[in-house]
Design brief:
single chain, 243 residues, alpha+beta, Glutamine Phosphoribosylpyrophosphate, subunit 1, domain 1, 5-stranded antiparallel sheet, 5 helices, 12 strands
Length: 243
């Protein structure tokens, strides 16, 4: 399984994904699930993937190959004029893989189980963030709900529900996202380090800040330790139930 978080801020985007794949207790692997396409000064896209690895890799390959297709081809990530159009391109790629492989997966007792978080910015349009489903349809993040999660999301959701705000600074939001991962890692063995983290600043139109966080990362170790201390302190400071 996996865990991915994407957050839309007034000042940009924070995107993160773990790298663990799990096809049984004796078949655990490590694969990248955060992908970028950038055309500096013009547009930048970030994609997080969860679900059937063969399907998600096929979708990523289609999107990359389309960019180099003949000029008379239809919309591609390079040709879209809005992020809404780009989300449609991604949705169409999902449907293309489903058309090719969906029946074969079903006949072998497997489901077409995939989901994506897709964010970016094109030109002067504001950054936008979408959650794309297995059917190729999607919803868009709003100031009321500025984040999406896919994969094993339940353990990391409480802190996002309580703390996430679209006006947060990028570094503050990245700290919150990593705490969400820390909670998930403690409670779910199907999610694992390293974590790929990307922050994107509005209107830069290029990827400048990426980080792979492994088990020996000093900041993540400090964050996990201090968060545990803070929770224990907060718990101790709340009056006990009178029984």
């Amino acid at each position: 399984m996996t865990y991915c978080v994407g957050m839309l801020l007034d000042k940009g985007l924070v995107m993160a994904a773990d790298t663990r794949t799990n096809a049984g207790v004796d078949n655990v692997g490590k694969f990248k699930k955060l992908y970028t396409w950038e055309f500096p000064g013009d547009r930048v896209f970030v994609l997080l993937t969860a679900g059937n690895l063969a399907v998600t890799q096929a979708v990523v390959s289609i999107l990359s190959e389309q960019i180099n297709d003949p000029p008379d081809r239809g919309l591609t990530l390079k040709k879209c004029s809005t992020m809404f159009q780009a989300a449609h391109v991604l949705g169409d790629a999902v449907r293309e893989v489903r058309k090719a492989d969906g029946d074969y997966l079903t006949s072998n007792g497997e489901s077409f189980a995939v989901s994506f978080i897709f964010g970016g910015q094109i030109g002067k349009e504001r950054p936008r963030l979408f959650n794309i489903y297995a059917a190729g349809n999607f919803i868009e993040a709003t100031p009321d709900t500025p984040f999406f999660q896919i994969g094993e999301h339940k353990y990391g959701k409480p802190i996002l529900d309580r703390v996430a705000r679209s006006e947060m600074e990028l570094g503050e939001a990245a700290k919150m996202v990593l705490l969400s991962f820390d909670s998930t890692l403690r409670s779910n063995l199907s999610v694992g380090l390293p974590i790929d983290l990307l922050t994107y600043e509005t209107d830069t139109l290029k990827v400048e800040h990426t980080k792979r966080i492994g088990p020996d990362d000093p900041y993540f170790k400090m964050l996990s330790t201090e968060w545990s201390k803070a929770l224990r302190t907060a718990f101790a400071n709340i009056e006990a139930l009178d029984i």
